[in-house]
Amino acid sequence: MWASTHNDTLRAKMSSVVDVLYDCQKKMGTGYLSAFPSEFFDRAEALTTVWAPYYTIHKIMQGLLDQYTVAGNSKALEMVVEMANYFSDRVKNVIQKYSIERHWASLNEETGGMNDVLYQLYTITDDLKHLTLAHLFDKPCFLGLLAVQADSISGFHSNTHIPVVVGAQMRYEVTGDVIYKVSRNLFRWTKEIAYADYYERALINGVLSIQRGTDPGVMIYMLPQAPGRSKAVSYHGWGTKYDSFWCCYGTGIESFSKLGDSIYFEEKGETPALSIIQYIPSTFNWKTAGVTVTQELEPLSSLDMNLQVSLSFSGKNGQSATLNVRIPTWTSASGAKATLNGKDLGSVTPGSLLSVTKQWNSNDHLSLQFPIALRTEAIKDDRPEYASLLAILFGPFVLAGLSSGDWDAKTGSAVSDWITAVPSSHNSQLMTFTQESSGKTFVLSSSNSSLTMQERPAVDGTDTAVHATFRVHPQDAARLHGTHGAALEDTSVQIEPFDMPGTVITNDLTLSAQKSAGSFFNIVPGLDGKPNSVSLELGTKPGCFLVSGADYSAGTKIQVSCKSSVQSIGGILEQAASFAQAAPLRQYHPISFVAKGVKRNFLLEPLYSLRDEFYTVYFNLAA
Question: Where is the Non-reducing end beta-L-arabinofuranosidase-like GH127 middle domain (predicted)?
Answer without folding.
Answer: 275-372
